[in-house]
Design brief:
By secondary structure, this protein is an alpha+beta fold. It has a single domain, classed as Peptide Deformylase, CATH 3.90.45.10. 30% of the residues lie in helices and 30% in strands. The protein contains 3 helices and 7 strands, in the order αβββββββαα. The strands form 2 sheets. It has a 5-stranded antiparallel sheet with strand order 1-2-3-6-7, sandwiched between helices. A two-stranded antiparallel ribbon has the order 4-5. The protein is globular, with a radius of gyration of 16 Å. It starts with 25 loop residues before the first helix and ends with a helix. Bound molecules: zinc ion.
């Protein structure tokens, strides 16, 4: 398994809508292995294909003490409630913001064997699914920030890019 370089904020691949997966085959399984290796190396809980430069509707995630799971062509069938959580993103490392999203969701999709998946998720798991689905839509969490949070985030991101440039 080889780890990818995670695409960072500013990379255009992160703001494009990913395409439906049409074939669940061996190449997809290899992609998933490499994405899981990348997620582990970055100590993340979830990783969407566009974050490694692949424009496919697919993400991997792993909850504590469980095996990693890949979900292909995911859809949120239903969402309920509200929950605030300090959310971060491997493509915007080190920045966390309290963001309100639905607390519970019903996610459907496909596994790597082509079987339909249906998961009732809440709190952290539901948060992770919503975050990864946003990536598939080309939406970064910066879009969910309020005005003051966004100002703070942009200031920090500008500071970083200046530091790199100097
Ligand atoms: Zn993210």
């Amino acid at each position: 398994m080889a780890a990818y370089q995670i695409r960072l904020f500013g990379d255009p691949v992160l703001t494009q809508r990913a395409a439906e997966v049409t074939d669940i085959d061996g190449s997809l399984a290899r992609l998933v292995d490499d994405m899981v290796a990348t997620m582990h190396e970055a100590r993340g809980m979830g990783l969407a294909a566009p974050q490694v430069g692949v424009q496919k509707r697919l993400f991997v995630y792993q909850l504590e003490d469980r095996e990693p799971v890949a979900i292909v062509n995911p859809t949120i069938a239903e969402s309920r409630g509200e929950w605030e959580y300090d959310e971060g993103c491997l493509s915007i490392p080190g920045l966390y913001f309290p963001i309100v999203r639905p607390k519970e969701i019903h996610l459907t999709g496909w596994d790597l064997d082509g079987n339909e998946i249906s998961i009732e998720a809440d709190e952290i798991e539901a948060r992770c699914f919503q975050h990864e689905l946003d990536h598939l839509e080309g939406r970064l969490l910066l879009k969910l920030l309020d005005k003051d949070q966004r100002k703070e985030a942009m200031r920090e991101l500008r500071r970083r890019s200046e530091a790199v440039g100097s």
